[in-house]
Amino acid sequence: MRFRLLARRSFCTVALCAVVSVAAVPAMAIDKAPAASSDSAYLKVVQSSIDALLKHGVDHWGDKETAMIASVLDRKKLAPPAKLPKGSIGVRESDRTTTHGSNTNMHQNLYWTMQELSRLTGDARYDKAARAALVDFVRLTQSPVTQLLGWGEHLCYDMKAEKTATNVDAGRATLIHEIKKPLEYWGLLYQAEPERMLGFARGLWEHQISDHKTGDFSRHASWDVHKPGKGFDFTKEAGYMIDIWSRAYADKPEPVFAEAIGVLVDRYTGKLNKLNLLDYDGVRKEYCNNGHNVTLAMECHAAAQRLGDAEPELIAKLRTLAERIDAGFLYCRHVPDDPQRGFIATCTTSNGESRDREGPGPGGHSVRWGFGYGKQTTAMIGMHCYHRMRQLPDGPTRKAYRELMLAAARTYEQAKLPAKSEDVDVWAVEPGVAITLLIAAHRETKESGYLEAAKRLANEAVAAYWDDASPLPRASLLRDHYEAMTGADTLLRALLTLHLQIAGGDEAALSDVDR
Fold it and tell me: How far apart are CA 502 and CA 496, in angstroms?
């Protein structure tokens, strides 16, 4: 370990299994779960994967080491590849990291798994490594110009080049900031780096939102220079920004954060049609993404709770927008327990009928297996329903979401992973989310069949994604490398959650990251 670097770098260093804790973030109290079985097969699979990542995947490339963890590894060599291997079917090259890249936005389920592993086993090094990786991320990837972070759909931190980077092999050299998943670790990062996190929240308003009066923006903005776009105002990304601004306001109630939330809430409230459906963005008319819209509803509801009593008018607007999105989503004729149909993931905005993203007509249903860009699995939207349900009080809306969630779970009760085929490539995230959905259904109904189905699917996943050649899971059924992009971290979290569910005791939080 190169301790000489610590004298001139403020970030924390992890080399292989040795972990230096982050002074600004006190380590979590390790409270071993007494009911957990130490010889669980799922626990062993998860722990061996995490151990391999900490030994071989923590940054020791370039001139300075960091605590960040590689997003792509050769499973047999346990090292970054010299060249990115062929991606899983449905993966866009522009969404992948560099060979030595680390994308924190895609690793959040990994960090949760590491922290929970410390709680479960009493071994603090997993928690320390997760915290160190997160804090190094915000210290090393924040743009000095825009305050945006080097993560998400198109960015990573290249641990060998030691800079925020993009996969230039995809033919795009510009550094584009787009949030891929919600930020689950605001609290930890704010505790460690409050000014950086507040700067990030301000940066989203100043450099991602193009028009501060109308709220027009693009999901794409330049990371390194002020260059916000317009017209591609996806509802999912709007939800993520509202979430971040509400967290920032709760920690430091600056008026700009409330203003930012209000502008976007007014924008989407004004865009709702008579069916309470929203166009995908300002460019694609008559095309509605239901999964993304429920994300916006969830983030609006959470933001309203987070604001307390400080902004009563804004809180009322947030709740109204969420409730109207609920009405639009539930208006559509979802059939999640029909494997041939599923949820209406995307629809024609004016009538709620299934519509493919490429044009009018059928094709906008969720899929049981076969994830990819522009697709949503039935399990994924089923988990949206579960998390939205849990936000709501008893009543018709809560009941409707619950019924849809359980219907989605039923389609996975007897479902098996498909055999290897060039027709359908199943990413690691897919069984991970399906296992999580079955656990949710078991918790909600106490019916043993859901838990048995989760165990059966988990056994299939372990057999399909692991082998004797490596402790790491493969990216997908057809690709034999490890890659966070395809949700290997979600599968690890699902297996550990299942272990805890079987063992009894405290119920682990179910992942809300994969949207």
Answer: 10
pTM recorded for the entire structure: 0.91
107: tokens are 């690793």
Same-domain check for residues 279 and 376: no
Q: Is residue 275 part of a domain?
A: yes
Residue 438, domain member (yes or no): yes
Whole-angstrom distance, CA of residue 260 vs CA of residue 327: 25
- What pLDDT sits at residue 31? 34
- Is 440:417 a contact under the CB 8 Å cutoff? no
**Predicted local distance difference test score (pLDDT) of residue 171:** 63
| Assigned domain for 513 exists | no
Q: What is the pLDDT of residue 114?
A: 98
158 falls within a domain? yes
Q: What is the helix (H) or strand (E) element at residue 102, kind and residue range?
A: strand 101-102
Task: Copy the structure tokens of residue 328.
Answer: 């639009």
Q: What is the pLDDT of residue 359?
A: 65
Q: Encoding tokens for residue 186?
A: 């605001």
- 352 and 373 part of one domain: no
Q: Residue 441 is part of a domain; what is its CATH number?
A: 1.50.10
- Chain-centroid distance, C-alpha 4: 35
- DSSP structural state of residue 19: E
Q: Which of 486, 386, 494, 384 is nearest to 427 (CA)?
A: 486
Q: How far apart are the first and last CA of the chain?
A: 38
Confidence (pLDDT) at 12: 37
- Residues 267, 295, single domain; the answer is yes
Q: Which SS3 state, helix, strand or coil, does residue 327 take?
A: helix
CA 432 – CA 72 distance, rounded (Å): 18
Residues 291, 422, single domain; the answer is no
Q: In the prediction, which pLDDT does 266 show?
A: 98
**Are 291 and 277 a contacting pair, CB within 8 Å?**
no
Burial category of 413 from C-beta neighbours within 10 Å (exposed 0-12, middle 13-18, buried 19 and up): middle
* Pair 20, 68 in one domain: yes
CB 104 within 8 A of CB 68: yes
Say if residue 451 is in the same domain as residue 400: yes
Q: How many domains does the chain have?
A: 2
- 354 and 390 housed in the same domain: no
Segments of the chain with pLDDT less than 50: 1-39
φ/ψ of 470, rounded to 5, equals: -160, 145
Q: Which helix (H) or strand (E) holds 14?
A: strand 14-15
Same domain for 26 and 108?
A: yes
Written as six digits, the tokens of 180 are 């891929």
User: Alpha-carbon Rg of the chain, whole angstroms?
Assistant: 22
pLDDT at 9: 32
Host domain of residue 171: 3-232+366-503
